[in-house]
Amino acid sequence: MLQVTNNNKRSMTLGPSEPVHDWEVERATVLIECREYRERMEVLERKVEQDQIIYEKNTASLIREVKMKETLLERRLEDTENRLLVQVNSNLRSCYVNCIILSIYICVCMCVCI
User: Fold this and answer.
1) What is the pLDDT at residue 7?
2) Which residues form a coiled coil (predicted)?
């Protein structure tokens, strides 16, 4: 029976001429994991940048909307105040006219009674 030595086995399988040490396997594994983590980190960084841009756009949009609503409410308030002032002035004029008419009536009544 022929015995095949370790070196002959390695050359027949086209493997390394020296045995692979555990630290080499671990190093290769760590390097692969490092690359995968770096790629994942880059993906997450791009996602954060995109989210930041969207956040800034949404914030600006919301600020514009709030300012627009504030302006609209200020106009409505001003219009309501103006309408109320017109109504109060109209009522005051009516009261004033009524007072004058009443005064005239009283004067006439007093003159007739005298």
Assistant:
1) 52
2) 27-83
**pLDDT on residue 4:** 47
> In the predicted model, is pLDDT for residue 2 greater than 50?
no
Dump pLDDT digits (tens) for 38-74: 999 999 999 999 999 999 999 999 999 999 999 999 9
Q: Write down the domain spans for the chain.
A: 19-113
Burial of 10 per CB tally in 10 Å (0-12, 13-18, 19+): middle
Which own/partner contact pairs does 19-27 have at CB distance under 8 Å and 24+ positions apart?
none
Report the 3 state secondary structure along 43-111.
Answer: HHHHHHHHHHHHHHHHHHHHHHHHHHHHHHHHHHHHHHHHHHHHHHHHHHHHHHHHHHHHHHHHHHHHH
User: How far apart (Å, rounded) are the C-alpha atoms in residues 7 and 17?
Assistant: 7
Phi/psi for 106 (5° steps) reads: -65, -45
CB 10 within 8 A of CB 17: yes
